[in-house]
Amino acid sequence: MADLGARRARPGRGDRLTGEHPAAVRPLSVADLGCGSGRTVAAVLAAVDALPPAGAGETDSLVVHAVDQVSGLDESLLTDRRVRSRTADLDAPLPLEDACLDAALSLNVLEHLADPVGHLVDVHRTLVPGGVLVLAHSDWDTALFTSTDDSLTRDLVDVFVAAGAGTQHAGAGRRSGAERSDGFSGRKLLSHAAASARRGAPWVVDDVASWADAHRRFDDGSIAWKVATGVLSTAGGDRELAARASGWMEGLRSLAADGQFLFTVTDVAVVLRKGSAPAPQG
Ligand SMILES: C[S@@+](CC[C@H](N)C(=O)[O-])C[C@H]1O[C@@H](n2cnc3c(N)ncnc32)[C@H](O)[C@@H]1O
Prior knowledge:
Layout: H1 2-9, H2 13-20, H3 22-25, E1 29-33, H4 39-49, E2 63-68, H5 75-78, E3 83-87, E4 101-107, H6 116-126, E5 127-145, H7 150-167, H8 189-198, E6 204-212, H9 223-235, H10 239-244, H11 248-257, E7 263-273
Helix pairs in contact: 6-8, 7-9
The structure holds S-adenosylmethionine.
S-adenosylmethionine binds at residues 34-36, 39-40, 68-70, 89-91, 107-109, 112-113, 177.
């Protein structure tokens, strides 16, 4: 009995691991917040599958929570036993326990939320100490289209960005998440993280990256076509601009057919880490 008591008083290696490095001994738990059809979920699974085999059953222990307000996950992901599809409103507390996630990802979602900082505070709650949030967003104000009328394109992008950022605060009724947008979201990620700290959820900024992918296609369904369609639809509220823009899409399509078209938008990604709890004093 005395022996057993002595062992209990002195933590062994296993106890140290579970206490100080919970991620090392518990299943790896990841959430994709605002997952849409699951492109990022698929990327996480592919990255894990590409790892060299490590401990037995390591990839079996991976759980990816695919969270969205609507269930739109691709069928192949719904049938993957590592994926948990969860329907939830990201403007409300996540249906996840405190400190249950090793990592969270959020791509092009913050602009749709009524309180993006409140969402970051709640994500902080769900991460283990040392867990990371990879927070990424396109910055629509930087949208670049090669066109034959630069001045018109500038005006169209300005109206597109103003329509998202402006009406959100216009008091003309609360916009739904699908309609709400903020064309400056990419450049605001660090200030959102700082605001989260002021609300009791501090982050360590591990990394900041920014890039712009080049898109040269303009066929229906391509990224450039989708963004241009959104841009043109906001111009509909301005009769004069809409009239000037009547042949804009056809112009882009024709440039693409001639190999002269380019669309880019700047993406920003920050890696935010939840700091470890300070060591107890004394
Ligand atoms: C632009 S899509 C991005 C999807 C995905 N992250 C990607 O990059 O492919 C935004 C996603 O956020 C989701 N979303 C928007 N507002 C939400 C809310 N309040 N609660 C939960 N999901 C929301 C939408 O349903 C949509 O799937």
